[in-house]
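Task 17 of the worksheet. Students: predict the tertiary structure of the chain below and write it out as structure tokens. Keep your answer in the requested format; marks are given for formatting as well as content.
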Amino acid sequence: MDSGRRPCGPSPSIAGGRLGLRYDLSDARGGSIGPGLQNTAQTDRHSWYAALLCTFWKDCLLTSSATSHVSKIPAVTLGFWVVKILATTLGETGGDTVSMTMDLGYLAATAIFLATLIVLVFLQIKAKAFHPILYWATIVASTTAGTTMADFADRSLGIVYAGGSLLLLACVLGALAAWYKTEGTVSVQTVNTPRVEVFYWLTITFSQTLGTALGDWAADSGLGYGGGAAAFGAALLCVAAVYFWTRISHVMLFWVAFILTRPLGATVGDFFDKPVDQGGLAVSRPVASAIIAAIMIACIVLIPQRAGDHPRTES
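Model answer:
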């Protein structure tokens, strides 16, 4: 027989794509839904509190499980691309400073930057949360290593720009293929486990090296540094237009844009420090590196930096 009384306790509901909870306190407190409930038995109250505690604990477990894989890379926003272009430009001038201005040579500079990159990637993987300075320092290390590796292959080993670019493109595609075969996706929205982070940084390092070779190839093929920067900048704008106005895979477009920012940074960096008779501004490499680094740090501080919204991947 219906007693006319509503059951007390938590009432589950679905809100925002996850389990939400409503707690009906009126019955336990009594008097709010009718005079017949003012003398609710104490045992009913105890049952209600026990149910509340049990449901609260389950909700905590659900929340902890849903956020157990945290993102340690930034959200892909306009600010991300601004800082990324500055980082690639700094990678060009910084790499040339060590290999050319300091006269250490491409091989020694590559060893220095690769060792730095390995240490920073290790720290990035071991980190428990997103740290903007650590992330962008790792990006700079990858782009400086990419600069000296590409220069070593092109100028010391004698691999022409075209051959080096094709070889490095094969490395990028190979890294992406291995990543996809292992994880079923190459989206940066899944970079939330150490294994995926290894694929992420390997792909980034190959793409930075490829971008350096592409930038040098474009500049030496007749476009010059200013023309090369304009060409790659225009290509990035085209990618942005395709992103917003077509249904082409956003994952693919991200990696295309990521690769294109590197030759853009390479040609801009060379435009700053190359001699005037070669089409540059003849700015000292250390000075140019210091200026670009200062601008980049200011952008990291002033532009809001937050971890990307990377959902947990179900096994």
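Marker's comment: The longest strand covers residues 9-15. Residues 9-66 form one domain.
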